[in-house]
Each structure stands twice: as structure tokens, then as C-alpha cells.
């Protein structure tokens, strides 16, 4: 089916230039035409959307998030990572039921769609959950992303955990829906060496990327040096971690040798600046990673450590932190940050056909209507406003794989009111 989105200003992020009074024609899930408005092209389109005055850009890529945690917003504020996890978050996650997890995941998807994310990379805690049922519910939302069973060493035993992770990953992979998967051991400190090795074997067997929290705090670095006599990044190298494409969430505390290894192996870093600030973990030096050639993507982490999934807020914070900590505004130019939150994210997650607006690429894009928004004036400086002035609440429409999933801020695939009701109901059961 052909759809036209027209009379809009398009930031392709393929090149720095903007297409003024432009048009995008989609055919099924792909972009068939992108360029100047041409009236006659409307004739053979089944659906037409007059987006006059709107700004259009690629959808944002949230490269590390925990969607089942949306019910934990506001829990455990003002705590360091380790007490936050062990005293607050993990005891609550142990009480999750499948229905609670589905509602919480849908709430996260509503929040992501409404704030401009079109692709996400998740890790969920599977304890006590029907993981197949959770996957079916997420698959029905029209959102695109990686949903991953998180492997932790626990009472169940490493072999049983690895089997369950393998089976759900195999099922998702075979299903070929909008939802894909990764193999996601939680971290080097919460998985035994055997479980980390099993994770690598599953990733190799099913040809999937690996996704793991790494080098998030000074404590993690010091504990790893004491226990394994090497850094977390190098410890994972000893376990053959880099034989598959790998996404490391965080990378706050890294040595020069770690950075060189990440570059050599093509590992991507999912940078979570607000979560790292809120948990008092520090500031990842993504300017150094960029200069070394490492692929850096942007992420929110969960709402329990952020406390929202707004990628616009995340981009602005990430850019300002680099300028401030390096004491030079050139440490993070605006265009580089927009690329990190789109194309670099897609690359990190293994999606080669999204992240820029280009013919032949997937039709994953969002619009912002700036005309009645005082904080997005003057209209002429639009490319600056996208990074330094806009927020997720400004997103008007969202298209994922050619499907319009939000029109003028109304979601078409999810019942937002019902999800709000259910989330508050389930919160009281915790
Ligand atoms: C929800 S699945 C994965 C697992 O990760 C925990 N988690 C959430 N945020 C972080 C973080 O910043 N570092 C380490 N672990 C984190 C979460 O509680 C889940 O149990
Ligand atoms: Zn995380």
C-alpha cells in the first residue's frame, strides 16, 4: 500500500541539509520516495497525510531500556546502583506476575511511542513470568525492537536459565515479527563464568547480538579487578564475548586499553547519561569513545533510574554533559548527537535499514508540529531546536515500518487510558 506524507520539512539525517516543503511516499514498510513536494505523486497513493508545517525526522532509537520496569517509576530515588538493585528493585521484581509485566511493558511502549522512539533495545527480568505470553503482548503493539530475556545466576541453576533463554530467543527469531531479540546476560558481576560462556554459545548458535550492562560504576571496576585481575571489558574478552556483535550498556568507567579493545572489536556502547547521573555512577566520556571510533548510541535505561523514556531529554543531557566536562562546546556537535540517537542506535542493534530517511530504508519516522509552540520559535532555527529545545511531548505523529501508530498524539494500536488504569491497579499489588 502506498502512503504520502507531504508539505513537511524533512531532516533526513542522511545529509545535514533539510528538504523544505518535502514529501515522503511509503510503499508497504519502506520509503519509496523522499524529496521535494510533487503534487502528481499523490495520485496513486491510497492514504495521504497533509503534514503542512510539520518537521519530520527519523524515529529515535532507545538502545537500552527495561520496559517491564515502567511500574517502578519513583521507587528507590536517591540511592547508589548496588543498594538500589538489591534492596529496592530486585525484591519488587520478584513479585511481578505476567499480567503486571505485560501492563508495565505496554505502558513503556506508550511512553516511547508518544515521545518519538520507533526502535528499542530491551532487557527484561524473566523471574516468575510466562515469557512467551509477554512476547506475544509486546509483538501486538506495532512497536519495533529487541526484547531480551535477562540471564542472572540464581537458585534455578545456570543450565536451566540458559535453556529457557535459548528457547525464547529461538522462538522470537523464528517468528520474524517486528520484535527481534538479543542474548542478554545481566552483567559480569551477576552471572557466573559458566553462564557468561553459555550466553556466548547461544548467541553464536542463533546468530544474535549480545547485550549486557558493563563498567557502570567504580565499584564494579574495583570488584572485577580484585576478583578477576582485569577490567570488566577485558574479562569479557577472555570469555569470547566479542565474537558476536555486542552492545554494552553504560561504559562509564573505562581504561584506555578498554576503549581500544571496544574499537578493535566493533562493540557498541549504549550511553545512559540521566540514569548514570541519577544513580550517582558518573559521566561516561563518550567524546573519547567517539574519537577512538567506537559506535556510541543513546539510551534511557528504565524509568526507575531516569525517570522517563524521553529520548529528546536524553540527547540534550548527553550533549551538554560532554561540553561541560570537556570544557569545550565542540566536544559534542548537535549533528553528531542526533546521529547517535538514530543511525548509531540502529547500527548497534543490528538494524541496517533504519536510522536515516532514505529511499529503500524502512519507513520509521516522526513529526513535530512547531507552529503553536512558543519554545520552538523562531521556526528558522529548526535543526538546533530538535536537539536543544524540543521534548518528547512535542512529537505529533509516528510511523513505524510504514504503519501510522500515532496521529496527532493519539495512539492507534494501544489503549492508553486502559493501560494507565491497569498500571495503577497492579502497583497496589506490589
Ligand atoms: C528489567 S531486566 C534486567 C535487570 O536489570 C536491572 N537493572 C535496571 N537498571 C539497571 C542498571 O542501571 N544497572 C544494572 N542493572 C539494572 C533490573 O532491575 C532488572 O532486574
Ligand atoms: Zn539497564
Care to describe what's here?
There is one protein chain. The protein is built from 15 helices and 19 strands. It is globular and about 65 Å long. It has two domains: 2-59 and 357-411, Urease, subunit C, domain 1, CATH 2.30.40; 64-349, Metal-dependent hydrolases (TIM Barrel), CATH 3.20.20.140. Strand 17 (395-400) and strand 18 form a beta hairpin. Helix 2 (98-114) packs across helix 15 (416-427). It has 430 residues and is an alpha/beta fold. The strands form four sheets. Strands 1, 2, 3, 4, 5, 16, 17, 18 and 19 form a nine-stranded mixed beta sheet that branches. A four-stranded parallel beta sheet has the order 6-7-8-10, with helices on both faces. The chain has helices at residues 81-93, 98-114, 131-139, 158-175, 193-206, 218-228, 232-238, 256-265, 273-278, 286-292, 311-326, 334-340, 343-349, 382-388, 416-427; strands at 2-11, 18-27, 30-36, 47-50, 55-58, 60-65, 117-122, 144-146, 150-151, 179-180, 184-185, 210-214, 246-250, 268-271, 295-298, 365-368, 395-400, 403-407, 410-411. The structure holds the ligand CSC[C@H]1O[C@@H](n2cnc3c(O)ncnc32)[C@H](O)[C@@H]1O and zinc ion (ZN).
Amino acid at each position: 500500500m502506498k502512503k504520502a506524507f507531504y508539505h513537511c520539512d524533512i531532516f533526513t539525517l542522511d545529509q545535514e541539509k533539510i528538504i523544505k516543503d518535502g514529501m515522503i511516499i511509503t510503499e508497504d514498510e519502506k520509503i519509496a520516495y523522499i524529496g521535494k513536494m510533487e503534487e502528481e505523486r499523490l495520485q496513486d497513493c491510497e492514504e495521504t497525510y497533509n503534514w503542512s508545517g510539520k518537521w519530520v525526522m527519523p524515529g529515535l532509537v532507545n538502545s537500552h531500556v527495561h520496559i517491564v520496569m515502567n511500574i517502578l517509576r519513583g521507587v528507590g530515588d536517591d540511592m547508589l546502583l548496588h543498594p538500589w538493585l538489591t534492596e529496592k528493585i530486585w525484591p519488587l521484581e520478584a513479585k511481578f506476575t505476567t499480567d503486571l509485566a505485560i501492563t508495565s511493558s505496554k505502558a513503556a511502549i506508550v511512553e516511547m511511542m508518544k515521545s518519538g522512539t520507533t526502535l528499542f533495545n530491551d532487557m527484561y527480568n524473566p523471574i516468575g513470568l510466562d515469557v512467551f505470553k509477554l512476547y506475544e503482548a509486546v509483538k501486538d503493539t506495532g512497536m519495533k525492537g529487541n526484547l531480551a530475556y535477562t540471564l542472572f545466576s540464581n537458585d534455578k541453576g545456570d543450565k536451566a536459565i540458559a535453556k529457557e533463554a535459548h528457547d525464547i530467543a529461538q522462538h522470537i527469531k523464528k517468528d520474524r515479527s517486528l520484535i527481534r531479540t538479543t542474548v542478554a546476560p545481566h552483567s559480569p558481576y551477576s552471572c557466573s563464568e559458566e553462564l557468561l560462556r553459555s550466553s556466548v554459545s547461544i548467541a553464536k548458535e542463533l546468530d544474535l547480538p549480545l547485550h549486557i550492562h558493563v563498567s557502570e560504576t567504580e565499584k564494579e571496576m574495583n570488584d572485577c579487578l580484585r576478583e578477576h585481575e582485569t577490567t570488566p571489558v577485558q574479562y569479557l574478552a577472555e570469555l569470547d564475548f566479542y565474537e558476536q556483535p555486542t552492545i554494552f550498556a553504560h561504559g562509564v568507567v573505562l581504561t584506555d586499553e578498554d576503549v581500544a579493545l571496544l574499537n578493535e572489536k566493533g562493540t557498541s556502547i549504549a550511553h545512559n547519561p540521566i540514569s548514570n547521573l541519577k544513580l550517582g555512577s558518573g559521566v561516561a566520556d563518550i567524546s573519547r569513545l567517539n574519537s577512538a571510533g567506537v559506535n556510541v548510541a543513546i539510551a534511557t535505561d528504565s524509568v526507575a533510574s531516569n525517570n522517563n523514556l524521553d529520548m529528546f531529554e536524553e540527547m540534550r543531557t548527553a550533549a551538554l554533559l560532554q561540553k561541560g566536562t570537556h570544557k569545550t562546546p565542540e566536544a559534542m556537535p548537535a549533528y553528531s548527537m542526533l546521529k547517535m540517537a538514530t543511525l548509531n542506535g540502529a547500527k548497534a542493534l543490528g538494524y541496517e535499514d533504519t536510522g536515516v530517511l532514505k529511499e529503500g530504508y524502512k519507513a520509521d519516522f516522526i513529526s513535530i508540529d512547531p507552529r503553536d509552540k512558543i519554545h520552538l520559535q523562531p521556526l528558522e532555527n529548526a535543526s538546533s531546536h530538535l536537539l536543544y529545545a524540543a521534548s518528547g511531548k512535542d512529537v505529533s505523529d509516528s510511523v513505524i515500518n510504514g504503519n501510522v501508530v500515532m496521529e496527532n498524539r493519539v495512539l492507534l494500536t494501544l489503549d492508553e487510558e486502559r493501560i494507565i488504569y491497569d498500571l495503577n491497579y497492579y502497583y497496589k499489588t506490589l
